[in-house]
Amino acid sequence: MFLLFPVVFWGISYIAIKVVLSELEPVEMISVRFLLAAPTLYLIIRLKGLQIWPVAEFGKLVLAAFMIFLHFWVMAVGMKETTASNTAWILTTAPIFIAILSWIYLKEKFSGWQWLGLFVACSGVWFLTYNGDFANFQWTNSRGDVIVLGSCVTWAIYTVGTRDITKKVNPLVATFWMTSLAGLVFIPYTLMTSGIERFMNLQDNTYISLLFLGIFCLAIAFWLWSEGLARQTAAEVGIYLYVEPLITVVGAWALIDESITIWLVVGAVLISAGVYIAEKYGAVKVAEHDV
Fold first, then answer.
1. pLDDT in tens, 40-70
2. What is the per-residue burial (b if ≥16 Cβ within 10 Å, else e) of 15-44?
3. Angle CA(222)–CA(12)–CA(187) in degrees, nearest 5?
4. Considering all CA atoms of the chain, what is the largest pairwise distance in Å, rounded to the nearest integer?
5. Quick count: other Cβ atoms within 10 Å of Cβ 239?
């Protein structure tokens, strides 16, 4: 259950993001998420009896806070122009980009099997973007998918760059500091540029989605996930993460009328196969997609 609930929350999160982006800009949405997540994480940390200060690697935590904001922002910008379903499946390729960056930056091995996995997964992204019409490859039509794919790169940079932090700082404490530090910058910026009035007359669905994204997806889900990681093997964790985009597809179809096309199914199968191949024969595990 520690792993199942976070996967369900994260699967639905892409739908909630689409709802919020219909009324708010990406920076506004992310600022509210940080505003809600930081105090929730603080309460969880206090309940677990963890120490918040002093904290190791504080300088790196500042840089990590910027990277986590950049990742959320790039993804949200892309999601303004693509579907929740496409986003969920494209983000599943993140472990491959982590492996590529580890190969370039950390000199870790990137085998022929992993190159094959990358090719198969990219073919899946191609089918998602194609969706039965070559006109979708025009920049104005494919821009959202490309930008979301770019967020896999920002996540890879964040993951590789924070490996030292997670070895020295409890993941919950690290996440608290990252959301808090990013919030200290972007919450005042949002209030100055958008004004508090911007958030006063939103639709009920938008308010509910913001609460869900900030409290449940960014705070409670991460807490439950960290508890689950301590109780399960990497292989078992990977199985749960493959379920996440399936939840998005079904939820998006039921809640926001996104179509389930044959091209989506083909793309999803190819992406799953590609990530599986790359993960099976590489050092980077699929579990790092959401950790």
1. 999 999 988 888 888 887 888 888 899 889 9
2. bbbbbbbebbbbbbbbbbbbbbbbbbbbeb
3. 60
4. 56
5. 13
Q: What is the predicted pLDDT for the residue at 240?
A: 66
One DSSP character per residue, 76-141 reads HHHHTTS-HHHHHHHHTTHHHHHHHHHHHHS-----HHHHHHHHHHHHHHHHHHHTT-GGGGSHHH
d(CA 240, CA 1): 11
Confidence of residue 238 (pLDDT cuts 50, 70, 90): low
Helical H runs in the chain?
4-21, 26-48, 58-79, 84-91, 94-105, 112-130, 139-161, 163-168, 171-194, 204-211, 221-229, 234-255, 262-280
Does residue 203 surpass a pLDDT of 70? yes
Of 263, 291, 290, 289, the closest CA to residue 95 belongs to 289
Instruction: Give the C-alpha separation, 257 to 89, whole Å.
Output: 17
Beta carbons within 8 Å of 223's beta carbon, 6+ residues apart: 41, 44, 172
Pairwise CA distance, residues 220 & 237, whole Å: 17
Q: How far apart are CA 38 and CA 52, in angstroms?
A: 12
Question: pTM of the full predicted structure?
Answer: 0.84
**Cα–Cα distance between 271 and 283 in angstroms, integer?**
18
Encoding tokens for residue 172? 């919950």
Q: Give the pLDDT band (50/70/90) at residue 26.
A: very high
Asked if 78 and 260 touch (Cβ cutoff 8 Å), the reply is no
